[in-house]
Design a protein that fits this description.
Length: 186
């Protein structure tokens, strides 16, 4: 991103205006301590520092911060107070730049956005997975109940069969016990 494309004309005009004030003051002989000259130099250096700090953040090359684009990080990168930042024309320009949808975010910002998107997708997948697991656990519980019912019924039938066989043995020789049919092999 070049400076011309990154910064709105209002910031560049303000910077040119401050340079003009400095040039005008530089033509005077008596600078003395303080006064208009030092205030103009301070304002111009704050604007320049803010512009350079913002450009470092936008290019993903922070020197002093984590790279997240915030006013606090901008002020830290520029080495100016937040009050100075908000008084400068840079604050409004930064707001306009960041609100523009076509503004290309630096890589760390893009990566944070991607991490956020992936975390959302992961939560959605986990939620779906948890619902599927709950459904499968319910199915397993239903099958376990059915197996238990069938096992009890089978035990009941085996007990009944054993009693009937015992009765047949006591009846004597009048009744012949047939061999149990063998089950066909599938």
């Amino acid at each position: 991103m070049t400076r011309q494309r990154l910064w709105p004309e209002c910031v560049l005009a303000a910077q040119r205006e401050q340079l003009g004030i400095l040039r005008c003051l530089a033509g005077q002989q008596d600078f003395g301590r303080g006064g208009w000259h030092s205030a103009a130099v301070g304002a111009l250096s704050s604007v320049r520092a803010l512009i350079e700090g913002f450009e470092r953040l936008m290019h993903g090359l922070p020197e002093l911060t984590d790279g997240k684009i915030t006013i606090v990080n901008l002020c830290t990168e520029a080495g100016v107070s937040r009050a100075s930042c908000y008084r400068s024309p840079v604050a409004q320009a930064v707001k306009e730049i960041l609100e523009a949808p076509q503004t290309r975010r630096p890589e760390p910002e893009e990566l944070r956005a991607e991490v956020s998107r992936l975390k959302k997708a992961e939560r959605k997948l986990r939620s779906g997975h948890a619902a599927e697991i709950r459904e499968l656990k319910d199915t397993v519980a239903t099958y376990a109940n059915q197996i238990q019912v069938l096992a009890l019924r089978n035990a009941e039938l085996e007990t009944r069969t054993a009693r009937l066989l015992e009765r047949l043995r006591h009846l004597g020789e009048n009744v012949a016990i047939l061999p149990a049919p063998s089950l066909p092999m599938p």
